[in-house]
Amino acid sequence: MTYHPKSEFIATMMERGFLADCTDYQGLDEALMTPGQPAYIGFDATAKSLHVGSLIQIMMLRWLQKTGHKPITLMGGGTTKVGDPSFRADERPLLTEAQIDDNIAGIKKVFSAYVDYNDSENGAVMINNAEWLDGLNYLEFLRDIGRHFSVNRMLAFESVKSRLDREQSLSFLEFNYMILQAYDFMELHRRYCCVLQMGGSDQWGNIVNGIDLTRRTIEGEVYGLTSPLLTTSDGKKMGKSQSGAIWLNPDMLSSYEFWQFWRNTTDADVGRFLKLYTELPVDECDRLGALEGSEINEAKVRLANEVTTLLHGAEAATAAEATAREVFEKGGVGDDLPTLSLSAADLGDGMSIVQLIVKSGLAKSGKDAKRLIKENGAKLDDEPLTNAGLMIDAAALTSPIKLSAGKKRHALVQLDA
């Protein structure tokens, strides 16, 4: 693409690798020459925390605010009751209102680390789409909104087509999701003069629907912009690790484990991830990403420190790096490792080492833990662990023990004081 943007935001999106597609580059670019333009990304409340897979969108909102515009974090209190079918193989489980509210409360904690909520021209605002969706009258909605949607066109969207091509069920409930998301954009434009919806490239069809509906019903001029769906260079989905999702809330994943995820980045991804997930100048990202040998490891430490500082603060990043160096370079225990605390009652007459490995999060199941031991991938206090039948009792925990899965994943097990 040869378009040369005038606005700082579009230039940043293009330069740092955030931009997959846009409905009207020139129109949006010109609109963003006026400061304080509101733009939104929607987040459904399907869990108590977002994970790393959502971080690219959160960083887009951060850059939007840094370049003088107004981020809207739209919480899907209404749409979560339906569930987004985009590129899923099955229907999402339905959540109760209490579960949704609980999830929203958890997700809210993350955003304030990245955007500043205030009353200024470019101050971020948080809005819940239940504000307008909960009170909809079904017949009025069908008459006023439904008539603008072509089923033929909706069936042609890739997110729906891929599901139908696999002959997997798509409920009417889910089919309505794209209409509700389009309605969100229209309402945000009507109520808050929102001019832009952003999202991952899997949201393209939903975003285009919202633009069409807004133009048809209130003749509003609005735009859509998508980011690429990220996979790591080895083809894995961004946000997943061997031990599960990389959550952003510290009560679901420790700052050390978050730091370690970034430290373990594949060499080929370092430069790209520095541009997307940190605020380092692009030239510096390119320089660090081009390093080789042992030097690329220091670039990974820089990546881990920068990303962790944004989410958890500089102190957490420094502590995580110190723990990592203690564990990896000096063979020590480290104060900041994930820790499993057990009472004497928990242990009873003893707990198997396999159970401890699972409880500490180093394996998903007893079967995985046994395979880890059999393949010589497990260590106890830095010594190879070969006996899957080993029992650990309270006497063995007079001081904490360190469990390791491979070279990079560790946990402490200690007795409650």
TrEMBL record:
This is Tyrosine--tRNA ligase. A motif ('HIGH' region) lies at residues 45-54. It is found in: Cytoplasm. L-tyrosine binds at Y40, Y177, Q181. Its main location: cytoplasm. ATP binds at K240. Its EC number is 6.1.1.1. InterPro entries: aa-tRNA-synth_Ic, Rossmann-like_a/b/a_fold, S4_RNA-bd_sf, Tyr-tRNA-ligase, Tyr-tRNA-ligase_bac-type, Tyr-tRNA-ligase_bac_1. Catalyzes the attachment of tyrosine to tRNA(Tyr) in a two-step reaction: tyrosine is first activated by ATP to form Tyr-AMP and then transferred to the acceptor end of tRNA(Tyr). Homodimer. It catalyses: tRNA(Tyr) + L-tyrosine + ATP = L-tyrosyl-tRNA(Tyr) + AMP + diphosphate + H(+). Pfam families: tRNA-synt_1b. CDD domains: TyrRS_core (cd00805). Belongs to the class-I aminoacyl-tRNA synthetase family. TyrS type 1 subfamily. Gene3D superfamilies: HUPs, RNA-binding S4 domain, Tyrosyl-Transfer RNA Synthetase.
